[in-house]
Amino acid sequence: xxxxxxxxxxxxxxxxxxxxxxxxxxxxxxxxxxETILITGRGTCLGALKAEDVCxxxxxxxxxxxGFVPSSEKLFHTSVYQHLxxxxxxxxxxxxxxxxxxxxxxxSFDTFETRLVLGDVPVVDQKTPTITDIMxxxxxxxxSNIVVLKHHGVVAIGETLNDAFFLAQxxxxxxxxxxxKDLYVRVDRPAAPASGGNAAVSPAGGTFELFSxxxxxxxVRLVNQDAQFRQLALQTNLExxxxxxxxxxxxxxxxxFSGGGIxxxxxxxxxxxxxxxxKSDYWRAxxxxxxxxxxxxxxxxxxxxxxxxxxxxxxxxxxxxxDLWTSAPVA
Length: 331
What we know:
This protein is α+β, with helices and mostly antiparallel strands and 331 residues long.
């Protein structure tokens, strides 16, 4: 237990040093077991935490130590652990994020690295000083390990406090880049010319059962008739085998990418160079484009076997591939 308390104190100092929260704002927690969590106390400064500022509470919010007053966000933290697989929660109030999202409802990232880590960050409106409308935030966290609370702050979850902290820090740095870019631009950027290659491909009609052979056949058809994918695949010399696996049933498909398209596919992992596996909820969100597949791997919602640096070379054609997936809608 002391090790977990020390971890909370360490991350609190990092948050303070990186200006992610000031004064007595922000709160941290760690899952202890299915019944209890460790959480910071109300009115504590994350940059000056002591062991007595951290205490164990039950999932109903009651502290195990008499007299300890947990963070006012205690019920949000316990709700996260009751509904999600998270082991750590970071809630901070970053200056640039709060300022940026006070006037924006979304952010487009200007570096590939940031998009790989964060994906599409959900923004959930808040109307109270503490998170009282909890379930919309929980729902958003199912598809992204980091969520912006408009007019409030940022929450991030992870397997460790390190993971959650790095997400919050990465988002704050990305917002700083967006603000600096706006200062340089000063004027609205001219609208990009329309491109027929970016048009969405119409679905054949109806929906498909997740990971059914019919869905996969439709995906292959869409990819092989898409001129934009072919061009991007040839430009980046896309030659590989990629397998996808549904955890619950172990249903697997391996796609052989060659010659600007999908040459063939099999219903087993086989000799795939890359294997991506995950639960049905995450795959369904990906096929609906509610979850970025690259970010899903960096946030550990999906598991990737293979060289991430190598698959990143083909980020552009695979991103087009994922766009096409939405045209084979799942039920």
